[in-house]
């Protein structure tokens, strides 16, 4: 019987295993500086933070997970996935690190964990950016002091405004799907978990299928940030065509990797969905 | 900074990632009933036993690792690798689960751990066979009572003869390379670690290369057990040819998977070698 922290680690590993996952590193594709093996090391390194998430403060657990994850040469492998997994582990735990049983991991409970975050959690979240480079947009003019790229330097402004981690995500929920999950009860995460559980076949094959479904459903906000809205919509439409069987998903994967267009937020949602499905009894 | 248990887990993941590793599951190949994702789940499930290995009794830690590893649908994914990793984790640990520093992980120290095992360790080793099917030869006539396939039923005989885990491996060292490592200071493990550290490139690519080198060097005892001496020698010769560049290692990999001939003991040695290299500072 795996603990929530172990299921979270397995979710990270199954996510990167799933192929084809167009544009992202998977079992069959990688980038010159971002390799499959870096994701293995990232998942192992996150271990301590994932275990802490069952009982320690959310922000501190997340920072620890990121620091451990970043201890490999690929850089940012699983930042967004860990940001989703940490509150979900807490929601799935009874406080001592054991699983509290599948009935406990609900959108309501996950929403409660998110809403209960503190200013200290927000400060730890900002400090996590010290360990790794994350692609983010320029903030609105009135939020420059809160730019996550400032890392620990932004903490005084966070404290002065009394912002909790939930508050931080509320301000970026319109342009970042991980933040949107945080402030809305993780709807796409739980929907992905249901789809993974409902499909047949190998878990990694199901995860690849659900990746395409999520991507076809909504433009990836990481692609929007890096390449703009129209590229994100084009990728989303291409995923829909591949999903219908009109084009080959492997060809799309080759094309996106060639162009360096990686729908990373969609991959994060798949990892979170895998976690929820595993907690609810999915067998591997 | 990863703990020894974390490095052991990473070694398991990097081993199965390494491709081509002719005849074994790797990033590019798998068997219908033994999939890449089963190795991910096996490595995660072994987690608790690997952590225990830093301080708890060797046999009990191993049994716990096997029980956790077996909690997936593929069956026996990493039995031999864990059997090598557990004493090596102990040798690399200062007793509280932290790494004791690279200078501590020596063949001498690993040999000492093996030699210090008890009758209770042997009993736990036998109990581990209750969790999983392992391919082994029929024992010699005078050792039928000690057939590992008897699992816990063999424990009274073990206790009656006062056999330690080291004693058990002494009796099979002539036909099982994992046992031979145990009773001889892990020579091929440490040699593999040195080769992995000396090569350039991605760690998983180095591991695949060292797999071929080990296989070319000596017939795989798992193949001997399942297919006989002549098949094992043929596979070894084919590995040597692929290593020289005279044939394509990927073609050899396709051929062996097609025939179901998996040099599993050689893969176990690669996992153990990866662990030693990681403990000694190899970066991923």
The largest inter-chain interface, given as chain pair and residues per side, is: A-B, 28 and 29 residues
Query: Could you say which structural class the secondary elements and strand pairing of chain A correspond to?
Result: mainly alpha
Strand percent estimate of chain A: under 5%
CATH topology of chain A: Triphosphoribosyl-dephospho-CoA protein
For the terminal residues of chain A, how far apart are their CA atoms?
A: 12 Å
Please tell me how large the radius of gyration of chain A is. Answer: 17 Å
Morphology call of chain A:
globular
Oligomer status: homodimer
Number of structural units classed as domains of chain A: 1
Using the 3D structure, state the CATH architecture of chain A. Answer: Orthogonal Bundle
Pfam family, one (chains A, B): CitG
Protein name (chains A, B): Triphosphoribosyl-dephospho-CoA protein
GO molecular function (chains A, B): ATP binding; triphosphoribosyl-dephospho-CoA synthase activity
Organism (chains A, B): Halococcus saccharolyticus DSM 5350
């Amino acid at each position: 019987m795996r603990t929530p922290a172990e299921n979270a680690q397995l979710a990270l590993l199954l996510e990167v295993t799933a192929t084809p996952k167009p544009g992202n590193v998977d079992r069959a594709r990688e980038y010159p500086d971002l390799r499959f093996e870096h994701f293995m090391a990232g998942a192992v390194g996150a271990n301590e933070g994932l275990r802490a998430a069952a009982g320690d403060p959310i922000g501190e657990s997340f920072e620890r997970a990121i620091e451990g994850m970043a201890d490999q040469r690929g850089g940012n492998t699983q930042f967004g996935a860990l940001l989703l997994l940490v509150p979900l582990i807490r929601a799935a735990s009874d406080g001592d690190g054991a699983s509290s049983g599948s009935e406990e991991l609900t959108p309501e409970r996950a929403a409660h964990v998110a809403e209960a975050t503190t200013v200290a959690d927000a400060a730890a979240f900002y400090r996590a950016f010290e360990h790794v480079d994350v692609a983010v947009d320029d903030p609105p003019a009135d939020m420059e002091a809160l730019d996550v790229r400032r890392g620990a330097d932004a903490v005084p402004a966070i404290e002065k405004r009394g912002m909790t981690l939930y508050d931080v995500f509320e301000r970026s929920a319109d342009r970042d799907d991980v933040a949107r999950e945080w402030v809305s009860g993780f709807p796409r995460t739980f929907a992905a978990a249901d789809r993974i559980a409902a499909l047949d076949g190998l878990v990694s094959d199901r995860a690849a299928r659900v990746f395409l479904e999520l991507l076809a459903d909504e433009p990836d906000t990481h692609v929007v940030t890096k390449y703009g809205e129209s590229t994100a919509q084009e990728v989303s439409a291409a995923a829909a065509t591949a999903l219908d069987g009109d084009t080959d998903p492997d060809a799309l994967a080759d094309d996106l990797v060639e162009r360096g267009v990686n729908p990373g937020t969609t991959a994060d949602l798949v990892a979170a969905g895998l976690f929820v499905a595993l907690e609810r009894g999915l067998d591997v």
